[in-house]
Amino acid sequence: MSGGSVEVSVVLPAYNEEATIENTVETTLDTLASFLPSDSFEVIVAEDGCDDRTPEIADRMAEQDSRVRHFHSDERLGRGGALNHAFEAAHGETLVYFDTDLATDMSHLEELVESVRSGDYAFATGSRWMPENVADRPAKRDLASRGFNGLTRLFLRSDLRDHQCGFKAFDRTALFDVLSNVEDKHWFWDTELLVRAQRKGYRIKEFSVDWTPKGDTKVDLVRDVFGMGSQIGRCWWEFSVEPRITRRVSMAVGVLMTVVAVLLMGKYLPMESVLTQMSKANPVLVGIAALVYIVSWPLRGVRYKDILEELGFTETTQFLTGAIFISQTGNLVFPARAGDAVRAYVVKARRGIPYPSGFASLAIERVFDLLTITVLAGTVLLGLTVTGQAADIVQAITGAEQREAARTAVFVAAGVGGAAIAAVGVIVASARSDRNFVREVVTKVSSDSYADYVASLIERFTGDVQTVASDKEAFVRVGASSLAIWSLDVLTAILVLIAFPGVSLDPVTLVAVGFFAVSVGNLAKVLPLSPGGVGLYEAAFTVFVAGLTSISWPVALGAAILDHAVKNIVTLIGGVASMFSLNVSLTQAVEEGSEMSVESETPSSLDD
């Protein structure tokens, strides 16, 4: 059929519907023909990666009737994804979809179509929860539906009663205006679409329909309801919280959190004792720690140079080290990790490297930081378990009578370590191969939208690694430099820790605890609550050192403060010197870099 005469396009999302699809299509054609000219509509079977005879049946029907079209996908797109794909190819100005089980009485189809086709409404949806006609549903589905719709109305301020009824019509222009912002591709697609349409001011008709449940629902009442609940949270954050988090608010909250943390530390922690312990620290060892940390900075420049060369840009290690110094100084001075965007500005303003390449290189660097931490953590856990050191450490903390509990905790930790190393192996294998191992593994566990979202995030990691992994030598160099950088970071902390009198741990325990304390401290800094993560790093470091060893809380806190101070002082000195050397204004760099970062997302900083 020519698309020029089609006014109404009905899309039937289908997944393994071989038993019902033919009857559904025929019923749809007959119903549409009862109130529309026979050449003014089309029926599209949006077949979503079926593994039964649905594609074969749909192909046959399309050959026999020009009003029927079939769109096939080799992989699961999710209900929302399949609908998006079909709507884009539809010819009509009025777009319709309903569930293929025909749970909604087809006598309502004319009202649905004409509500939009007439121009009175931009969206129309059937409802099973109108006061005059509440659908009779099985108890478990009734409770889940009432709860979900209630939460949607409460948190997303929707005026509708039933967001998930699979019986909807849309004006084509209005649909695509709203659809451009809809993120979900599975069951939450309907709800997000209707909520966003309301927020844009479109008129929506919700009318009562006769609805009869047909067979078992394809919604997993635990997995999908939980996933849809998390999507409500995502939309609530986007609509109600995110718009209020301006730069001024972020800075104010960051400063306030820092002040409150300092006041609480002064009230509830033995700060006099902490300061006394810090004054006793061996200045020679602290000085050596600072020198060790300084050595790590040229390595950062070398690593960044290797990454940029893979993107097609060649720069000197000296310049790139300076750019990193400036960006990390920005993170120390401004809250919310505003300095992350500074580096992209510096390399663009001083060397002409495009912003997208600058942000991409930063993302790659962060991914290697995360991979390095994960591998080292897993290796330390496994190593301590194999050598028996882990059991001794846990037993020393819990007491001799808890030997069995200690052994259990150690084996669990070893399992986590092995899983972490295996996860990194899958990511690297995917980056080095044409096969998508990440999605294969995730989809074996679950195929819902939340799992798909997780897989997409990991795929972004994989894509960043792949940029470097395509060159084996470059991959090895970047991996080795990342390992060296983090090893020097840990060594700095260890030297500061042993500079305090009375700290006497065996080397294996010292290295293990030092690594975990630094790792957890840096992960805590991901939260954008204070400039440079001041307070967050110290708290995480202290809890880990004091909790896993016999070192007292005042000594652990003193070591955490001194360790972070040494690293921050080195960073500030290097940053100020680099700003003078490269003639860069930090304030201007933060402002211009942050504007560009809105268009190019980068992972959170883990650097000190």
Automatic annotation (TrEMBL):
Membrane topology per record: Multi-pass membrane protein
Gene3D superfamilies documented for this protein: Spore Coat Polysaccharide Biosynthesis Protein SpsA, Chain A
CDD domains (alphabetical): DPG_synthase (cd04188)
UniProt cross-references to InterPro entries, sorted A to Z: DPG_synthase, Glyco_trans_2-like, L-PG_synthase/AglD, Nucleotide-diphossugar_trans
Keyword annotations: Cell membrane, Glycosyltransferase, Membrane, Transferase, Transmembrane, Transmembrane helix
Highest taxon listed in the record's lineage: Archaea
One term of GO molecular function: glycosyltransferase activity
Subcellular location: Cell membrane
Any one biological process term the GO annotation gives: protein N-linked glycosylation
Main location, first listed in the record: membrane
Protein family (similarity comment): Belongs to the glycosyltransferase 2 family.
Protein name: Flippase-like domain-containing protein
Protein's organism: Haladaptatus pallidirubidus
